[in-house]
Amino acid sequence: MLAHILGTQSNLAFMAGDPMAVLESAEEGRDVADAIGDRGTAHQCRTWLGWARMIMGDLTGAVAAFQEANARAYADRIWGVVGAHYQAQALYRQGQTVSAQAMLDEATPAAAELGGLWSGNSSGVRAVGALAAGDVGTADSACRIALQQLAGAPFHQQMYVYLAAEVALAIGDGDTARRRADEAVAVATGWTLVESFTTRARVALRTGEWARAERDAHDALALAAELGAHLGVPDILECLAASAAGAGSVDEAARLLGAADAMRSRMGAVRFAVHQADYDAAVATIRTALGDDEFDKAWADGAGLATDDAVAYVRRGRGERKRPPTGWAALTPTERDVVRLVSEGLANKDIASRLFVSPRTVETHLTHVYTKLGLKSRVQLVQQAARQG
Predict the structure, then answer these.
(1) Distance of alpha carbon 152 from its chain centroid, rounded?
(2) Above 80 in pLDDT, residue 76?
(3) Which residues, at least 6 apart from 31, have a Cβ–Cβ distance to it below 8 Å?
(4) Quick count: other Cβ atoms within 10 Å of Cβ 60?
(5) DSSP letter string over 303-352?
């Protein structure tokens, strides 16, 4: 019974996109399941451990966790397919596109037999891999298939909406990219919300909206820090570097690039090919503005920061200090999600279900919102939110 409870908790934590919560329940669940010979739960917990380690930036540990689950031959086809999907994502992040594609191809027949939910997720992972390889055409078709097949499974579908924005951005359709990025931010949770904010920052960068890009990138960074989602931090810092350069802070931009590059090296994570051209252009612009010597010095300063130190530095310098203590700008991304759902007429228990948190957590968020906005009731909040648009 305890093993099943812990397995369910790890599954719910995954649905919330919270790798640290997954780690806490899945590690204990794995140990308990191993002790009593519950192979199915053990496979489940090892799969989510792999996912958590990937999102936390431990790609090597993630791949090892997936391989361990498969090597123990638990013969659970569902968890075998899920594990293959996420191991492929970890391999894509490491730049091992051939191995990732082979793993995905091997799992495809089983996914098809299991039904649209698994096939849809398989297509979503193919879209991720195609973006990693710079194959926009394949990413487009795979993303469309995924969103269509997962239309009846909103939680699974929300994991891939941001990919539609990435595809639109890659083909130069700015209007669609903005619309899809807004949709992604509206429905995503946890880790997927980090990716969605980052994608929306990229959309703003493409049109030279530096302040908008900075705001979304900082929201992504704040949530990534809260979740321990180090995997997304290099991309976020590169977005912040581009927005800083656009606003004239080229020294800061070079420092952020150095920090991002060092993080990638420590994680063994590659930049997706679809983002390489924009990155190269930003680096060239910043280097030209600073000159080689100053650029290299600022880059080295950033590269010398440990991951947590770099995140703290950025949040102190440009994030937390800029977030005022009161008013709408003071709300965190999660608090804004709660306000949006209150405005849609949802009760606290329904908001908790949508955000995969407890009703008490929703009450805490609302208390913070009321304090920051100087409000006393739910009715006032809905009215103020309507005025904000």
Answers:
(1) 22
(2) no
(3) none
(4) 13
(5) HTS-HHHHHHHHIIIIIITTS-SSSGGG--HHHHHHHHHHHTT--HHHHH
Neighbours of 329 (CB within 10 A): 11
Instruction: Dig out the tokens for 145 from the structure.
Output: 């298939």
Task: Please report, in angstroms and rounded to a whole number, the separation of the first and last CA atoms in the chain.
Answer: 48
Residue 291, Ramachandran bin (φ over 0: left; ψ between -120 and 50: alpha; else beta): left
Exposure of 367 by Cβ count < 10 A (0-12 exposed, 13-18 middle, 19+ buried)?
Answer: exposed
Residues written for the chain: 389
328-386 CATH fold? Arc Repressor Mutant, subunit A (1.10.10)
Give tens-digit pLDDT for 10-31. 989 998 899 999 999 999 999 9
- Tell me the CATH number of domain 1-113, given options 3.40.50.300, 3.30.565.10, 1.25.40.10, 3.30.559.30: 1.25.40.10
Tens digit of pLDDT for each residue in 170-229? 999 999 999 999 999 999 999 999 999 999 999 999 999 999 999 999 999 999 999 999
Please say if the pLDDT value at position 140 is more than 70: yes
Q: Residue 195 contacts by C-beta under 8 Å, 6 or more apart in sequence?
A: 162, 188, 220, 232
Any idea where the domains of the chain sit in the sequence?
1-113, 115-188, 208-322, 328-386
- Euclidean distance between CA atoms 133 and 234, whole angstroms: 18
List Cβ neighbours of 45 (8 Å cut-off, separation of 6 or more): 6, 7, 10, 25, 26, 27, 29, 30, 33
How far is 181 from 161, CA to CA, in rounded Å? 8
- Of 82, 50, 80, which is closest to residue 65 (Cα–Cα)? 50
